[in-house]
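Crash report, auto-generated. Payload:
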Amino acid sequence: MKPIKYLIIVVFVGLLVGCGANIPPAELINARQAYQHASSGQAAQLVPAELHKAQEALAIAEKSFQDEPNSFRTRDLSYIADRKSKMAEALATTVAENATTAKANKEFQSTQTEILKNTKADLASSEKSDLVKSEQLATEQKARLDADNRAAKAQSDLANLAAVKEEERGLVITLSGSVLFASNKSDLLPSAQDRLNHVADALLTTKERKLTVEGHTDSQGTVGYNQDLSQRRADAVRSYLISRGYSGDLIFAQGIGENRPIADNRSAEGRANNRRVEIIVGHLAN
Amino acid sequence: MKQINKARLTVYILFAALIAGCASSPVVVNKEASTSAIRAAEEVGASKIPSAALYLQLAKEELENAKVLAEKSNKEESESMLSRAQVDGELAVALSHGDADKKEAVQALERVDKLRQDNKLLKKGSDQ
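Recovered output after restart:
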């Protein structure tokens, strides 16, 4: 039995020694773990060449471990393999960061371009709006100028047909009563119609203005009669202007009678001047 | 005979001394690669970057160990240790670059965010 026991002890010790020889050094364990970590991360995709170097370094360390398990060479080669894996990971991180930077810079540029484009569009829109406004303003100014020109021309035309005077109440066109009406009548004479046509044409160029037609008489006859006659004459002129196209809403007829003479009623000439119709062209409302 | 023995003894002693002397004499190793790696790591500021500083420190210590081993005539071990120093120095450089690149990436992302926020404020201001 003794030799058998001895044999068992020898085999056991041999087994222990054998196993002990196969225990890898800490450096190799670290190297294996480091490579495992690196190869399962982004290094495989981003820096395959570096990862391959790490793999080769690990293979050399493994070979050394097979040949000389306990040598300093195995430990140092394992240590180097560990660092090569870590290097691959570090370089992969660098590549990833560089890609992030490049992407961010590109995004910065595209955002900047977009902002510039939007700003230009806003500016163009604003300029267009300003242009429209200035065009509107120019149109309004032109319209106003045209209206002023028309009014000036009308005034000039009227001056040739009748007495025209600028007063505080407006432009006053005075037509002689004897030209427009027969004595004691309120119907317009045919010759008066021709003259009134010219007046009406001139007024139609400024038809947006309010007109007041005033009838005036001399002091002969009763006040009531004169008042009535002056009203009828004013109405007759108003009706005629409406028939020529002037808006009825803008013409107001008023009989003044003998109340506002412009000349002496004692002379025939003075009375003739007092018999009149005045058309007051109101100021343009702003 | 006695004289012969003495002579032999002297020869043995001299021979042993010679062997001992040869064994402890320093060996020459090429430290160029490892010192270059350490210098490069220092130049990129590895000592100020936590992740890289450790490896720079290890590289320096390994260089010193290699010198000691060379002093003890352990040429092979010294050279192997120098390889450790070199790879640690190189890793310190790589980590330093990675840190700088990371900072740059963060700054680039911040620039984009700031531009977008400024534009948002500008747009909000113009809408009001």
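Post-recovery validation: The radius of gyration of chain B is 30 Å.
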